[in-house]
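wait is this the right file?? whatever heres the structure
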């Protein structure tokens, strides 16, 4: 059984909210968040677009992942700048990034002064569902794929909900973040299934599973590659279904990124489900399966 550590983190939650404003603005369910930190979030978002040499979503992921483990904003900015190729001098980038983070955190903490008390309470329904279904989902995932894909332990960073349910796997840190929603936003896709899907991605950076790709490529492949596997495990548990319509629903509501030149309904989902059926029939090594999937989707 996977050992999980559940921890709320106000800094990661504040930056998750800022990312949500910039990337999914119209989908926010708590408008108070936009009113409180919207200006600061957009300032940081513009800075990222102007300064980073890769896509904003990846920069946000690096930033939020590090915020969950580094308390000092100066040290956080230094760590993120070291990991990122920016169009600024390191000293300038560190100073500016630390300032943006500090502004966002201050406004966020004013809006949610009892965050550290309230979010663990909000997380209890998800924790209870995991106690009831988590071991089964992970066991079936191991049977459907390979047991070596299952991480032995992981950290779950709990967030204040701003999108009515959202989460991201930080594969390089063996950590995920997830909004602590009180109820399932969709009956067809319970939050415990989303949680299992996030956790299922954490071992994909091991050389035995993906020696053909770097971190960026694995980050783009992992959410899609593990989706049919988790839906299949959930179907065995009678929690969801593994078919094209459910995959489309998950991609839309779980904000799963897809290749920009591919249409979800006519290309991505049919290709993904065909790949999964082929995998079940032939059972190649997961490394080979991932290479084939990357080629099918045109992920370089």
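ok assuming it is, sequence goes like this
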């Amino acid at each position: 059984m996977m050992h999980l550590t559940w921890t709320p983190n106000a800094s990661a939650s504040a930056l998750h909210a800022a990312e949500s404003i910039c990337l999914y603005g119209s989908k926010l369910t708590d408008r108070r968040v936009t009113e409180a930190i919207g200006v600061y979030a957009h300032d940081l978002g513009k800075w990222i677009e102007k300064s980073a040499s890769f896509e904003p979503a990846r920069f946000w992921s690096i930033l939020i992942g590090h915020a969950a483990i580094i308390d000092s904003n100066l040290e956080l900015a230094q760590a993120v700048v070291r990991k990122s190729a920016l169009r600024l001098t390191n000293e300038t980038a560190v100073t500016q990034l630390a300032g943006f983070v500090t502004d966002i955190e201050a406004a966020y903490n004013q809006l949610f002064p009892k965050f550290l008390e309230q979010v663990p309470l909000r997380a209890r329904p998800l924790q209870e569902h995991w106690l009831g279904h988590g071991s089964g989902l992970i066991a079936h995932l191991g049977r459907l794929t390979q047991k070596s894909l299952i991480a032995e332990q992981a950290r779950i960073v709990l967030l204040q909900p701003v999108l009515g349910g959202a989460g991201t796997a930080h594969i390089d840190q063996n950590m995920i973040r997830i909004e602590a929603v009180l109820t399932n936003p969709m009956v067809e896709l319970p939050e415990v299934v989303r949680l299992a899907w996030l956790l299922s991605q954490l071992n994909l950076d091991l050389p035995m599973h993906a020696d053909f790709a770097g971190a960026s490529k694995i980050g783009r492949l992992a959410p899609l590659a593990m989706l049919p596997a988790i839906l299949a495990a959930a179907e065995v548990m009678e929690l969801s279904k593994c078919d094209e319509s459910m995959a489309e629903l998950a991609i839309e509501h779980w904000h799963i990124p897809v290749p920009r030149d591919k249409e979800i309904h006519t290309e991505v989902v049919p290709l993904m489900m065909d790949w999964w059926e082929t995998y079940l029939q032939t059972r190649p090594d997961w490394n080979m399966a991932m290479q084939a999937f990357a080629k099918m989707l045109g992920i370089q």
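The mean pLDDT is 94. so i think its the right one actually
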